[in-house]
Structure formats: structure tokens, C-alpha cells
Amino acid sequence: MDINELEVELLQYTIDEYGYVSATSLMVFYKWQRHEVFEYTSKKLFNGMQFEIDRETDSTILLKGNGIVLMLIKTSIVDSVLAKYLN
């Protein structure tokens, strides 16, 4: 995903003890460089935790790191993706 010209939202996914999945919006990046998004997420939001790209499409990037699952997603499709995967 080319995030340089996009508005992308960072979501954190969690699964509770009953298996229910939820997503929390952490922040929206507007026209940041790709490396800036990854660096800010790692260093500022998660105290230096390293994340690996698990999957990437034209509109999403799934990141995994030490039990934490994050998704960068185009803000224009956030609602439809959440409705599909969280219901």
C-alpha cells in the first residue's frame, strides 16, 4: 500500500477471553511517509516494539508484534472493513 498520499488509520485488534474480536482506533496518519508511520508506531506508541508486516494489500497493512496485532487501513474503507470482520 502506498500510504504517502493517503489518510490511513491505525487500529489495534484484541480478542477477549470469550473469543470476541474488537478494534480500537489509535490514530490517523495524513500523508506521512511509510517509514515515518512505522517508526512512530514502534517508538512512540509501543515503546520500541518491533512489528513485522504479516500481510499487505492495496488498502491495508497487517502488522504483528509480540502478541499485538495492528492494521493500517485507508480511512475511506474503515467502516466497511470493521463491519465485515467484527460482526
Short key terms for the protein model shown above:
5-stranded antiparallel sheet; 87 residues; 24% helix; alpha+beta
Task: Explain how this protein is built.
This protein is α+β, with helices and mostly antiparallel strands and 87 residues long. 24% of the residues lie in helices and 43% in strands. It has one domain. The protein contains two helices and five strands; from the N terminus they run E-E-H-E-E-E-H. Strand 3 and strand 4 form a beta hairpin.
Distance between the termini: 25 Å
The sequence of SSEs as H and E is: EEHEEEH
Number of helices: 2
Poorly predicted regions are: none
Tell me how many strands there are.
Answer: 5
Output the radius of gyration.
13 Å
From the helix content, strand content and strand pairing, which structural class follows? alpha+beta
- Give average pLDDT, whole number: 88
* Residue share in β-strands: 35-45%
What would you call the quaternary organization?
single chain
